[in-house]
Amino acid sequence: MDSLVIDIAVLVLAGFVGYTVISKVPNTLHTPLMSGTNAIHGIVVLGGLLLMSQSSGVLEKILLVIAVAFGTINVIGGFLVTDRMLEMFKAKDPPKSDETAAEETPES
Amino acid sequence: MIGTIFLQSKNFIDAAYIVAFGMLIYGMTGLTGPRTAVRGNKIAAVGMAIAVIATLLRKGEFHGSSTVWLIILGVAIGTAIGVPAARNVKMTAMPQMVALFNGVGGGAVALIAWVEYRHAFGGGYPLRSEIFELFGAIVGSISFWGSNIAFGKLQEIIPGRPIKLPGRSQTVLNIGLFVIAVASAVIIASGTHSQALFILGILVVAAILGNAVVLPIGGADMPVVISLLNAFTGLSAAATGVALSNTVMIVAGMIVGASGTILTNLMAKAMNRSVPAIVAGGFGGAVAAPAGGGETGGTVRSTSAADVAIQLAYARQVVVAPGYGMAVAQAQHAVRELEKALEAKGVTVKYAIHPVAGRMPGHMNVLLAEADVPYDLLKEMDEINPEFPRTDVVLVIGANDVTNPAAKNEPGSPIYGMPILEVDQASAVIVLKRSMASGFAGIDNPLFYDPKTSMLFGDAKASVSEVTAEVQAL
Fold first, then answer.
1. Size of interface A-B (CB pairs under 8 A)
2. ipTM for the assembly
3. Range of the domain at A33
4. Is B450 among the residues known to form the active site?
5. Alpha helix locations (H) across B31-126?
6. What does the pLDDT look like over B86-139, one tens digit per residue?
7. What residue in A sits closest to B50 (Cα-Cα)?
8. Which entry of B14, B392, B401, B459 is annotated as an active-site residue?
9. How far apart are CA B1 and CA B466, in angstroms?
10. What is the tally of structural domains in chain A?
């Protein structure tokens, strides 16, 4: 099959999966949901990484470095903020710790 | 990096991508309950990390000596900005933060589309991928600029009231800009001209469009706008994924697109307005209270902390209706103390949460959770509204528009038809407010002139603490 056809098929199916999953999220968790999905669209950072090796010329490189930086802010900031919020919804018995979010450190 | 041939093979990387988007979806299913949500978010984060690592493993990724350093530079800058921002942001400033993160995501899409386009310009790039890339360029750019304006409005760098051209010219301008952007895209896609400038044209026009669309939207509608822009960024990321034929980008982008769309619709419904009407703008502040209808009640009764304490302590049921004012005053911990003091006196305390109270859906829940308020005391609008007639005292803390009875009684009011917390059904209402200024929507609230309403003026946190002390002294 044509790869574009496959890609569009994935696009459509993912849309339905997303719709089904997200419909079940209760009102209470809508702020974390918004910031969590916000982190997920930071996936565009992959586009920057993919193009970096093919880029030529100073302008392209500058643009891509900015794009990667933007994407990284989006991903790391988004997940950290969501984690901070969700920690507060957890059971209150143990003392609160904000320090559990360390695993999303960047890799190079 | 382990440089074995296997790890660099396309099959391995595709497999890693599948694991990655599986984890992203599974992580999101965790968000359906407060108990599983933390883990879900972490699973999604790990999925994201896998996708990034797999991409870096690709053969030829580090072709060219500078590539490694440029990637490290980009990631380092992003980390240096993103981590402190995420760690230090106050819970009350969360909507701005989300708007900002959303904006940089959209900006990344637009920049990537730009670079991709420059490659395509040499020829040999399939037209159909180009269409997706151009979609990404337009929508990403709109999202970037629109989100920045939304951030500015929420941070109160830019006035929250609608800023727009007179009459219909704003709509004409917006439609004109949109047509220009699409026309430029068609010129590029048809590919017969020297198009180098058109991509810049698209980005600039889309940038102006992003500003022109969000500036006229009033502050009260900002949550809907952020959610809409979130969906836009997701869709543009998915489009970039199609152009680059990268499955994990497609799946992740579409999930965000779907979630943003659902949230936007839910919020628009909670405000009884249509999404197109919100985007058309002009609501919130521009409309003067119709014929001064709200002022007819005349005088406002102000009260003291001691009186409030007595009223509360001898009630059977007290409902707290929080709004953005509670967030601004950082009063959520003080409110929790008051709740505990009242519970010690045998008073039932519940919280009435309007879906769009605050500046984001679920904003109040996050703040009250921060103050350790038990999850089951937070009641959603449909659940609490039938209880108001049986409630002795409603304590409205920094909420305004979501309690405005004009939404039910005054067909001329700009918020007429919006579902509200029917606090005026309770036996008594106490409103904590800094001053008589109107709410974010800029509409007068007849609730304040209701004879059974009394007002306690002052900073919400100080007032609540004072009342708590009085309750404990009783």
1. 382
2. 0.82
3. 29-101
4. no
5. 37-57, 65-88, 94-121
6. 998 888 788 888 999 999 999 999 999 888 887 766 555 666 677 888 899 899
7. A107
8. B401
9. 61
10. 1
